[in-house]
Amino acid sequence: MSKRTGVILDVRMQRESKSFTDALYAVLTAAGLFEGPKFMLSGLSGMAFKFTVHEKLLPMSVTAYGQWGTEHRRAVDNLGIFLVDDGGRTRHDSFGAYQRIAIDCVKQSLDRGLACLYWIPEFGVIHGYDEDDRVFYVQDGWSGETQYVLYDNFGLNFTPFWDYMYVGERMMIPLQDTVLESLRLALEDWETPHKTLPVSSLGSGRLAYSFLIRALQQGGFDSYGAIYILESYMTSRIEISAYLREVQSVLPGLKEVSRLYDELVEGLRGPLAAAISEKNSGKLLMQVQLPSLCSALKKALELEERAMQQVTKISGQYPDRKRSTLPRWGAHTAR
Fold this sequence. Notes:
The protein is α+β, with helices and mostly antiparallel strands.
C-alpha cells in the first residue's frame, strides 16, 4: 500500500466571532461533531463571555483572554469533545523537536478527516497538506483563498507564540449540565481581573470595562485596536443574547439573565454604530461620539453585573464538583 502524499478536506472557515470560535466551528461542523448555529457553540463553550482589554486598547486584547492551554481545553471539554493541543514560544531550544512532532500529528489528524486549529495569527484552520511540496493548506477565515505554510515554517509567525490543536471523538453531555458549566465559566471570567498574570496591563471581565472606558475617555489609545475590541465585544454580546434566548428554559432564573443581555445589546447598538464610521480609507472612531459611547458602556457594565449576580444565584442551586473537589495531586498553576 503506497503512502498518502496529501489530503484536502472540505472545510470552510468564516470570521464572525473570536478567531478560535470561528476555527473550532469550522472544524467541528465539517466533521459532524457539532450541529447548530455558531452562537450556540460560542455560548456553550463559554468563549462568548471572554472579554479582555489592554489599557492602551491594543488589538491583541481580543485573543489575550488567558493561558490558551487552559482556556481552550475547558471550552472544548464543555462540548464533550476530545482535544489535543500544544504550543509555546518559538525561542525555546526545544521548539524544533516540538515542531517535528506537531507536523506529524497534524498530518495524522488530516488523514483521519479532521482539520486542525492553528495559530497563524490569529487562529485559523489547517485543512490539508501536500507531502511532495511539504506544505500545509491553511484558511484564515477572512477570504476564501487558501494560504500555504511550509513544514519548515510551521509555528513561525510575527508573534513569539506557536499553537495548534486537533480534536477527536465526542461524548454527549446533558444540555442542562453544559449550560450550567458555561455560566460558571462566564462567572469565573467576570470575576478574574487579570487572566495573564504577572501582566497587569490587561484587564478581564468587569475590569475590562474599566480599562476600555478609561482609555476612551483619556485618549492615547490604539485606534485600530479600539475598533477591533469594540466590534469583537459587540459580536460576543450578540452571541450571548442569542444563546441565552435559546437555552433560557433549561435552568430556573435564566430568563432574567437573558432579558438583561437583550437589554445590553439593544442599548449599545446605536451608540456603537454612531462611534464607528466607514470611510474609503477604512473604519474610523468618531471622537465626538465617544462620550455617548462611554455612557452606553457604563450602562452595559451595570447590566452585565446584574446578570452575573443572577448567574451566581443560579449556580448556587446546584453542586459544583469541579470547583469544590481538590484533585489528589493538589492544586497547580495553569501553563
